[in-house]
Amino acid sequence: MSLPKILVADDHPLFRAAVLHALRDVVDVQATLEAASVSALTAAVDEHPDVELVLLDLAMPGARGFSSLVWLRGERPDLPVLVISSNDHPRVIRRAQQFGAAGFIPKSAPVDAIRTAVQAVMEGGTSFPPITAERSERDAQLAARLAQLTPQQFRVLLAVADGLLNKQIAYEFGLAENTVKVHVTAILKKLECHSRTQAAVLVKALEPEGDFDPAA
């Protein structure tokens, strides 16, 4: 049986080091990878398809709330993701669960709690602190809408939400401008949006305290 490869995505070097130290006491690993930004995360996932667990900080450079989690779930639905966040508000934990996380670790958690959570998820289970927030039907609808997008379409959606024009998106991703137009048209159709502005509102709802009107 091959040893697992684990990716720790967090922009704080000391926290990454602490997590990696905790992991070594829990499970034998083939390799531990690190990423300090969303661009480094996407590159690592592309370069290492054999990664078996991601520990994901929600507030890395390039992230928009839960956008990295949603992207990972679309890119690798088989890959369990443990969210790490300093924001452990009950609704944030519930939203992480609804957007597909396998677990949630508050950054204030002791090392033993990190070890327990990692072990539970590596064994195929889940690990969340007690959640008092109710499940949100709006988040369920948002997750269902976004799940229709391909990983590339989701990347284009984030660029649209950043206000980039089609030609800028084409340059950013190395695509033909007409290809970007096709992606944008498909995105708006799948999300049932009539404009780029409406699509950007959905992305805004991925922020930890974000919300959206599914009828908008």
UniProtKB/TrEMBL annotation:
InterPro entries: CheY-like_superfamily, EvgA-like, NreC/VraR/RcsB-like_REC, Sig_transdc_resp-reg_C-effctor, Sig_transdc_resp-reg_receiver, Tscrpt_reg_LuxR_C. Keywords: DNA-binding, Phosphoprotein. PROSITE patterns: HTH_LUXR_1 (PS00622), HTH_LUXR_2 (PS50043), RESPONSE_REGULATORY (PS50110). Pfam families: GerE, Response_reg. Residues 5-122 form the Response regulatory domain. Residues 142-207 form the HTH luxR-type domain. The modification 4-aspartylphosphate is found at residue 57. This is Two component transcriptional regulator, LuxR family. It comes from Pseudoxanthomonas wuyuanensis.
